Amino acid sequence: MGAPNRTISERRGRRAIPWGMLALWVIVLAIAAPFAGELGAVQRDRAVDYLPASADSTQVATLGELLPGGDSTDLVLVYHRDGGLTPDDRDTAAREVARVAAEHRLTSPPRPVPSKDGTTLLYAVSSTEPGTDEKARDALVQDIRAGVSGQVGGPGALATDAGEVYESLDGPLLYTTVAVVAILLIVIYRSPFLWLVPLLVAGAADFLSMAVTYALHQGFDISVSGQSTGVMTILVFGAGTDYALLLVSRYREELRRTPRPYDAMLTALRGCGPAVLASSGTVAAGLLCLLAADLNSSRGMGPTAAVGVLCALVAMTTLLPALLVVLGRRVFWPLIPAHGSAPKTGRRSFFAAVGGSAGRRPVAVLLTGAAALAALALGTLALPGALKQEDSFTSTPEAVAAMKTLAAAYPEAGTQPITVIAPTTGAARALETARATDGVESAEPGRSGAGWTEISVLADHPPQSAAETATIKELRAGLGEGVYVGGPSAEQLDLTETSRSDSMMIVPLVLVAVLLILVVLLRSLIAPLLLVGAVVAVWGASLGIGGLLFEPLFGFEGTDPGLPLLSFVFLVALGVDYGIFVMHRMREECLDGAEPGAAALTALRTTGGVIASAGLVLAATFAVLVNMPLVQLAELGFVIAVGVLLDTFLVRTYLVTSASVLLGRKVWWPGPLARRPAAVPATPAERTPAGV
């Protein structure tokens, strides 16, 4: 009786484990709920929240809070009539501006600045009423807009409009992502029920990632922006669904061999778990390299995105298996994998045909693919210049409309002040230097306090033009150390220059980090170099495609300064992610005695379908960003989506396979697989991937 009782007890214990896991997740999500709900409250999307702490423009924004009244909100009231302003228009403008000055705490009385053609009148308005409170700033902007008949623009209004856009992203971004993933899963699984399971698990992972990100912000003060949380959601659903596809595919196979779902799931986790764990760890490590960035937005993006990937990993390897085991085989209806059944076989698969062509003509395939990627990479030369503030929206909010009105009415004049903050003891000298600087139209002293004095400088060139940028650089060089030059145009300059310097440091850091991890995982040097070289080529080609299409197809007037770095980090990390799946299977085949060429073709044939499905899902989730109303998100989503497709259907299928066929055993050099002759069984130590 002992053995049967023990068997019954074991079965009961196995049935209890999935239910226990589900209960644990309910508890975790209940604990996470209050923290996840607070993430939106700590999200910041001011320009200063994206800038590096060491930048001049950041110092100006920080020191401005010490001046009387605190941080100022700078606006421009624009009155315009195409045929020319009438006397009644001017009277109305004067009356409305006077009411604004009477109702709000302004730093100085606004004065009218007419355009030469008489069509436009602008008033510069600066208020310390909101301070650093974003909600108070938004209320001020909306109140002024409600009380004037002209357009309200300027940095403060632009920040308010940008904040509204970011707030509007959360719902549409999540709903669109869920809809896209759901449609793809229904097509892939051909089941009315199965697609719901990974989708619900991804939703739980997204909820958990929000709570963890909020905790990281509270504990380590990481920067949280609308851009970083949006990308985190995309990664949770994209990468999480990829892991689900791999696990469910292996689980379906095991259900045909194993009578009990619990045992089939254990076998599936042992089979694909190491590859999923290694790939997600590599992605997270690559993303965490962004912590070395000087740009606040990039530095905050690193841990936020890594949290998304790791939460997706945890959910897909704990919650998803538990749900699938509890639901049993019936979740696959109508294509239920019965025990002892064989999968349906049809005509030769696409990936078998691809492998055949790569195996027969590896040199031609490799050279043709490499030449195509190189040609596409030349498109980077056509990338538009740095993105201006007014071109950051795919729509035209009021602040942008006001900026465009000013640009047309004052084509040769500065309409946006450059802010200089100098020690009060040297303010007179700084004012004199500023007035004598080439390109400066006027410079006037402003508030003083806490040992600092504010100077408002107006350039004689349009905002963010090459001439105004040169003036800002001249001011910084002439004013010297201890005097800071900021304002919206200076912020854009700092964003561009810091993104460039961050790229010089982080690109090699990511390459070295990912390469070292791959060397440990694959016990080889050649295979990691092959994978890293392939994903770098994909990055160049996808960025080149963006250069060819951004302006003529999408109408984007500029390129976000952070696009090259962020797209590089994501494409390298995610591309290597897929490479690990293929190389892991290829290594298994080699350990069973197959030659590397044959192993590469087998790996492509057996994993090609599921990796193609995963690539389509990931590309589709990032493509959701293309429809968002912010150009920087649209550009990032487009480049990553194109890169994932190139990696999935060109590099991973043709180039890596043909290179592996050509290299033979050298692909595993200097590891033991490079020396062990074919058909010799692998030792247990060789069979376990290093570091997994």
Concise overview:
The chain is of the alpha+beta class. 66% of the residues lie in helices and 7% in strands.
List keywords for this structure.
692 residues; alpha+beta; 4-stranded antiparallel sheet; disordered C terminus
Account of the 3D structure:
The chain is of the alpha+beta class and 692 residues long. It is 66% helix and 7% strand. It has 22 helices and eight strands. The protein has a four-stranded antiparallel sheet, sandwiched between helices. A hairpin with a 5-residue loop joins strand 2 and strand 3. The C terminus is likely disordered.
Name the helix and strand elements from N-terminus to C-terminus, one letter apiece: HHHHEHEEHEHHHHHHHHEHEEHEHHHHHH
| Number of distinct beta strands | 8
Beta-strand residue percentage: 5-15%
Spatial ordering of strands, largest sheet: 2-3-1-4
Radius of gyration, in angstroms, nearest whole number: 29 Å
The chain-level mean pLDDT equals: 86
Q: How would you characterize the largest beta sheet?
A: 4 strands, antiparallel
- Count helical runs: 22
Please write out the topology.
Elements: H1 2-37, H2 39-42, H3 47-50, H4 56-64, E1 73-80, H5 87-103, E2 112-114, E3 120-127, H6 134-147, E4 151-153, H7 155-189, H8 196-220, H9 226-257, H10 261-288, H11 296-327, H12 350-360, H13 362-377, H14 398-409, E5 418-423, H15 427-436, E6 440-449, E7 452-459, H16 466-479, E8 484-486, H17 488-522, H18 526-554, H19 563-591, H20 596-623, H21 631-663, H22 684-687
Antiparallel strand pairs: 1-3, 1-4, 2-3, 5-7, 5-8, 6-7
Helix pairs in contact: 1-8, 1-11, 6-7, 7-9, 7-20, 8-9, 8-11, 9-10, 9-11, 9-20, 10-11, 10-17, 10-19, 12-13, 12-20, 12-21, 13-18, 13-21, 17-18, 17-19, 18-19, 18-21, 19-20, 19-21, 20-21
